[in-house]
Design brief:
This protein has helices at about 10-50, 80-85, 100-110, 115, 150-155, 215-225, 250-260, 270-290, 330-335, 360-370, 385-390, 455-470, and strands spanning about 55-60, 90-95, 135, 160-165, 180-185, 235-240, 300-305, 335-340, 350-355, 355-360, 400-405, 415-420, 425-430, 435-440, 475-480. By secondary structure, the chain is of the alpha/beta class. Strands 1, 2, 4, 5, 6, 7, 8, 9 and 10 form a nine-stranded mixed sheet that branches.
Length: about 475
């Protein structure tokens, strides 16, 4: 019988057990509630303490892919930029969205292809009234209703400023009308009247006589950093340099003249001095970040708006060799650019990324870094580079596209282009001619392969045409006033 009651209790024992269990469960509930409250308080404290990184985007005008020491130049001296490359990620196959400036700037700020924006040439462009093709009626400003980096980052709590060249329309379309808190130096002009004060730039008060423009841009950036050190900030610094009229500090020009070799591909002493001023500006900005202990919480991006200007003759500003041609061209020298991204504690120092990327990618990249959003009705043609910066080997994308339905003073005629994998196809609109290159084997585009690989050329041409249709690209048409 004893065995029958094994584990059984009297009514009194059962009541005491129930009371004990109730007290234990109540105690557990109180403890759980206390822990949940503590965790919630910690989460709120962490959220309050979290501050997204500052962002400084430096865009150099007409800087060539081969102009920097970290990209192989032995003539130009760029120690601060080279240091940025050593401490961040250097992209070897980065491209501008266009072969000229205004379209790339609009694309970088919005994440949209120039063809989608219908901003497809520099503003106001080059007129060829008797050319074989009549160029489309393209847009010559960045519309103020476009969602852009300034608006996105401002909505995420950033202080924003544009310092330097704007070139995206007149006063109604200046940076302060586009979401920037301040605009210093930005107008509708594509180049400065002077690199030395007095500048004659209506949005930039003149400095002391002899002040150099690139130094002034750096000083303004440092002032903004100082004033906004307690909050996240976004500095868009599109230098006027190294665009014409090329100028340099006399002492620095003299240094490069003594160094130049007449048979070297890069030998323009004044251009080298102007580029050195850009390097100095980066050094001043980084020193200010160090001084204010902001370096570890600041992302720095350094790039160019198109390939280097080569011109003809002994005074050519630069050389993009081994790449073919330069600014205004469909070839690699016209669209391949430097790109450096320094993201402390995230980007691997000294990393080299060979994935093909484009300036349209910077919009989604910076939004992801800042935790900012874009409206659902705002298409983005770019891809975030955060995975690449964090160490991924590749980026999922179909292809890179270009659309330039214009004539350029350097000789380029209307064209479209596509790069998919190692192949790049150029379609010339005047006569429908195709050129195909394998960039892995032939980065200088010397071996034209369309006749050798007609199936590849046709496939890429069809894909390029489908892309133009999808985004509503404007095409040139036959010119009734054409004079051969």
């Amino acid at each position: 019988m004893k065995a029958l009651f094994w584990g059984c209790h009297s009514v009194k024992d059962q009541g005491e057990t129930a009371e004990k269990l109730w007290m234990q469960s109540t105690l557990r509930a109180v403890l759980l509630f206390t822990v949940v409250c503590q965790l919630a308080g910690l989460a709120r404290a962490q959220a309050a303490a979290y501050r997204p990184p500052n962002i400084i985007l430096i865009l150099v005008d007409d800087l060539g892919w081969a102009d920097l020491g970290c990209y192989g130049s032995t003539f130009h001296e760029t120690p601060n930029i080279d240091r940025l490359a050593r401490e961040g990620v250097r992209f070897t196959q980065a491209y501008s969205a266009c072969t000229v400036c205004s379209p790339t700037r609009a694309s970088l700020l919005t994440g949209k292809s120039p063809a989608r924006l219908h901003i497809t040439d520099w503003i106001p462009g080059h007129k060829r009234p008797e050319a074989k093709l009549r160029v489309p009626d393209w847009t010559q400003h960045l519309a103020t209703n476009e969602w852009n980096l300034a608006k996105a980052l401002k909505s995420a709590g950033y202080a924003t400023i544009s310092i330097g060249k704007w070139h995206l329309g007149g006063p109604k379309f200046y940076p302060e009308q586009q979401g920037f808190d301040a605009n210093i130096g930005g107008t509708d002009r594509g180049q400065p009247p002077s690199y030395v004060s007095p500048y004659k730039i209506q949005t930039l008060p003149d400095g002391p006589p002899g002040e150099f423009l690139t130094d002034r841009e750096a000083a303004e950036a440092c002032r903004f950093i100082e004033a906004n050190r307690a909050r996240p900030f976004f500095i868009y610094l599109p230098h006027y340099a190294v665009h014409q009229p090329i100028a340099g500090k006399p002492g620095v020009v003299a240094k490069y003249r003594a160094k130049a070799k007449p048979d070297a591909p890069q030998r323009n002493a004044t251009y080298a001095a102007l580029l050195e001023s850009v390097d100095d500006a980066l050094g001043r900005i980084r020193s200010k970040l160090d001084e204010l202990k902001l370096s570890d919480r600041t992302v720095l991006i350094f790039t160019s708006d198109n390939g280097g200007l080569i011109l003809d003759g002994k005074n050519a500003p630069t050389s993009n060799a081994p790449l073919r041609s330069g600014k205004g061209s469909p070839y690699e020298g016209g669209v391949r650019v430097p790109l450096l991204i320094h993201w402390p504690n995230r980007a691997k120092a000294g990393a080299i990324c060979e994935a093909p990327v484009m300036s349209i990618d910077l919009f989604p990249t910076l939004l992801e870094i800042a935790g900012a959003k874009r409206p659902l009705d705002h298409p983005s043609d770019g891809r975030s580079l955060v995975p690449l910066v964090s160490g991924a080997a590749a980026l999922e994308r179909e292809a890179l596209y270009w659309h330039y339905p214009h004539y350029h003073p350097g000789g380029a005629t209307p064209y479209g282009a596509i790069r998919q994998g190692d192949f790049k196809l150029i379609e010339f609109f005047e006569d429908g001619r195709l050129e195909l290159f394998n960039l892995k084997r032939d980065p200088g585009e010397q071996q034209e392969l369309a006749a050798d690989h007609p199936e590849v050329a046709q496939r890429l041409q069809n894909q390029l045409a489908a892309w133009r249709k999808e985004i509503g690209a404007q095409m040139p048409v036959a010119n009734p006033h054409y004079k051969p």
